[in-house]
């Protein structure tokens, strides 16, 4: 199939940008991406700015960001590993209860740095000064999600940002 000249030029431009991004990523040691969701309770509490600032102060970059009211079908895909758990229905109701902020954060050891900043899943076990320790209410309503490993990050980034990787 013949591509029209503009389409060809667009494809060449896209490949060049992707090559440049890859080169810049290689310049950062252990460069990783993580998919972060500031959940509906975090948005409602108006702590989005504070949370983003914590990532930035830790040296991480916000690469993509969007505001999204997650619907049940998207929530089901994202949390497929939790289907059938006793808390699943409450988790679905919570995640679809209002807008979330969805971000790709990038930087050196982004996944473990983000997990440290967030604290454990259960806010009652999280230290003050961590995001969940400061803003989470209980083990389900816990303010924020972050990818747990690079395979999950790739899957989750694809769910919310299309074939971005
Ligand atoms: P998150 O980090 O987004 O990953 C899965 C989510 O399911 C988790 O945060 C909580 O919101 C919820 N969750 C995980 N484990 C439990 C549990 N044992 N009881 C209740 N909710 C849970």
Q: Largest beta sheet: what is the strand line-up? A: 2-3-1-4
Report the uncertain regions: none
Strand element count:
4
Write down the CATH class: Alpha Beta
Rg, Å, rounded:
18 Å
Strand content: 15-25%
- The ordered H/E elements are HEHHEHHEHHEH
In short:
With 165 residues, the protein is an alpha+beta fold. The chain has helices at residues 5-27, 40-44, 48-57, 72-78, 88-95, 110-118, 131-135, 150-161, and strands at 31-38, 61-68, 100-108, 144-146. The model has no long low-confidence stretch (mean pLDDT 92).
Provide a descriptive summary of the structure in words:
With 165 residues, the protein is of the alpha+beta class. The protein has one domain: Alpha-Beta Plaits. Helix content is 48%, strand content 17%. It is built from 8 helices and 4 strands; from the N terminus they run αβααβααβααβα. A 4-stranded antiparallel beta sheet has the order 2-3-1-4, sandwiched between helices. The longest helix has 23 residues. Adenosine-3',5'-cyclic-monophosphate (CMP) binds next to loops.
Descriptive terms for the model:
binds adenosine-3',5'-cyclic-monophosphate, alpha+beta, Alpha-Beta Plaits, 165 residues
Question: What's the helix and strand layout?
Answer:
Layout: H1 5-27, E1 31-38, H2 40-44, H3 48-57, E2 61-68, H4 72-78, H5 88-95, E3 100-108, H6 110-118, H7 131-135, E4 144-146, H8 150-161
Antiparallel strand pairs: 1-3, 1-4, 2-3
The chain binds adenosine-3',5'-cyclic-monophosphate.
């Amino acid at each position: 199939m013949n591509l029209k000249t503009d389409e060809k030029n667009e494809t060449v431009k896209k490949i060049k940008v992707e090559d440049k991004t890859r080169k810049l990523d290689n310049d950062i040691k252990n460069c990783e991406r993580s998919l972060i969701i500031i959940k509906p309770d975090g948005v409602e509490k108006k702590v989005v700015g504070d949370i983003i600032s914590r990532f930035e102060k830790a040296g991480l970059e916000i690469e993509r960001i969007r505001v999204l009211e997650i619907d049940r079908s998207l929530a089901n895909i994202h949390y497929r590993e939790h289907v059938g758990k006793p808390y699943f229905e409450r988790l679905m109701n919570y995640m679809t209860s209002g807008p979330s902020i969805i971000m790709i954060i990038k930087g050196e050891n982004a996944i473990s740095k983000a997990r440290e900043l967030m604290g454990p899943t259960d806010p009652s076990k999280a230290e003050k000064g961590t995001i969940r320790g400061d803003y989470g209410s209980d083990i389900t309503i816990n303010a924020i999600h972050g990818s747990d490993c690079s395979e999950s990050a790739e899957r989750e980034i694809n769910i919310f940002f299309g074939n971005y990787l």
